[in-house]
Design a protein that fits this description.
By secondary structure, the protein is an alpha+beta fold. The chain has a single domain, classed as Rossmann fold (3-Layer(aba) Sandwich), CATH 3.40.50. The chain has 8 helices and 4 strands, in the order ααββααββαααα. Strands 1-4 form a two-stranded antiparallel sheet. A two-stranded antiparallel ribbon has the order 2-3. The longest helix has 10 residues. The protein is elongated, with a radius of gyration of 18 Å.
């Protein structure tokens, strides 16, 4: 409120959950709506080992859990690490970030003030084209950087 940029970290499941966390800490909703600009959620996923990387077919259930339809998956090549000495037989070597952004624009600010739930705010943000952690992870799977199983493990939300 004084014009100073403040960056902070919170342990939440996703970006909209930050609003609930702050209100539970006693921050008034009107203050949140007028002072928040952007909320970023991030996770690290394991990167596929380049030494033992091999193509793999994804099951229908895996595609469903990634929210990817068969048409979108057609022609894509998905990978896994077979396991080798370079990765200690894990199939992974290193990590990469996946992100979710929630821009607090006028609409989201109004939703915060009116006391809308995380689910309603999440739905509104997705309607504006903001992806979530799972969407970011799916992009990394399509780029051959990580596995579908890793993204499901790290980024799946129980309600989705």
């Amino acid at each position: 409120m004084t014009g100073h940029l403040v960056l902070s970290t919170f342990h939440t499941n996703d970006a909209p959950s930050t609003i609930s966390r702050l209100t539970h800490m006693g921050v008034e909703r009107y203050l949140l709506s007028s002072t928040l600009n952007l909320i970023v959620a991030q996770r690290l996923v394991r990167r596929i080992c380049d030494t033992c990387k091999e193509p793999v077919q994804l099951t229908e259930d895996t595609l469903r859990r990634l929210r990817v339809d068969r048409e979108r998956a057609a022609g894509a090549v998905f990978y896994r690490g077979k396991g080798c000495p370079a990765c200690g037989q894990t199939g992974y070597h290193g990590r990469l970030p996946i992100f979710e952004f929630l821009a607090v624009d006028e609409d989201i600010a109004e939703r915060i003030i009116s006391g809308q739930s995380e689910t309603e705010i999440r739905r509104a943000a997705r309607g504006k084209g903001y992806g979530d952690l799972l969407d970011s992870g799916v992009r990394a799977v399509f780029q051959g950087q990580t596995t579908a199983e890793e993204v499901i493990r790290v980024a799946s939300m129980s309600e989705e």
